[in-house]
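Thread: adenosine-5'-diphosphate complex, take 2
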Amino acid sequence: MSGLGKDIGKSTGGHPMVRAEGVHKSFGPAHILKGIDLEVNPREVFCLIGPSGSGKSTFLRCINHLEKISAGRLYVDGELVGYRQKGDRLYELKEREVAAQRRDIGMVFQRFNLFPHMTALENVMEAPVQVKGESKAAARERAQRLLDRVGLGDRTGHYPAQLSGGQQQRVAIARALAMEPKLMLFDEPTSALDPELVGEVLDVMRDLAEDGMTMIVVTHEMGFAREVGDSLVFMDDGVVVEAGHPREVLTNPQHERTKSFLSKVL
Ligand SMILES: Nc1ncnc2c1ncn2[C@@H]1O[C@H](COP(=O)(O)OP(=O)(O)O)[C@@H](O)[C@H]1O
Ligand SMILES: [Mg+2]
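Output below.
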């Protein structure tokens, strides 16, 4: 399984793929993200770790504007997410414009969220046909190629219920790739899997990384973070506590909170 897509990792004009500047997010009175600053460079595998409830999923959801940030600035590929800036003022983008931004960002969830009434092939074909108006023939050809590349070329006619969790998650990755995203967000992609199925999903992600895809990966798989990650951020209670090279952070954490967290998960 190699060459997961030769035209991935495309972009950019010299700016980071993702840039967060003082990003805050509240849900009513609950202040969840408390000023996140970070940058993800093109082709980087950026791992995000932290305790449950620290705001990791919320941050990913802000990146593709499934959540609206309360303050700060968030850029993807040099473009403000969800807003247009004129002078000092921000204007919200129309739903159609938000959808256009979101189209460039693939997201893979803990629970695979495949369409249960569609085969693997149909799941992967769906968005290019419905959202991009691609011809069924072209979408089918790409879907077949992507399923081959995640090792499921012989399962294209299977329905999600006929596939293992690991296979379903690989279909979900192929489905995200079908939109030819410039950025992939993974939210604990292996957390719902039986332990023996984790490896096959991480292998696909490793392949994607080697092909140059820019990826933000929320994970508890410290082995993956160490081997594949270029950067690691430890987040707790809505702030970035510590950031650095994964090997550095994992073997030589500087902050008590990082040490305490790692002692529980390593
Ligand atoms: N839509 C929402 N409304 C209210 N609170 C929310 C919502 N989404 C998330 N939260 C709260 O935000 C906090 C962070 O959640 P989350 O981003 O899912 O953390 P993590 O992914 O790190 O476990 C949690 O306390 C959660 O209850
Ligand atoms: Mg989460």
